[in-house]
Amino acid sequence: MAAVNRPLSPHLQIYKPQLTSVLSIIHRGTGVFLTLGALFLSCWLLSIANGPESYTAVQQYILAWYGQIILYAWVYSLYYHLCNGIRHLFWDMGLGLEIKTTYISGYIVVAVSILFTIATWCLVRGGV
Question: Which helix (H) or strand (E) holds 105?
């Protein structure tokens, strides 16, 4: 079979990242992160069932600075994935598919996710 000299697609490094593509990648990443978080939540629940020693050991990791960062990121991922999922439901209905509207809704998703995350942690920490 003879080699065909077809044009190759440009590599990813050539493309300028757009808000919509970045948000799509983040949506997929938050889905993976939420799945991993659900596994860790299961481990935490098992530690409760396993007894006080096991629970204390797991709590030491959760209450450490790195555990808190992971929890903050997990809550943000939850809200981001939820808000972006609602955005996709509107798209499924054929609403908001114009370029300008997709950018506006993308910024709204990010802003609302941040606000909900801050509100959640204020409620959890007793700040409100």
Answer: helix 99-125
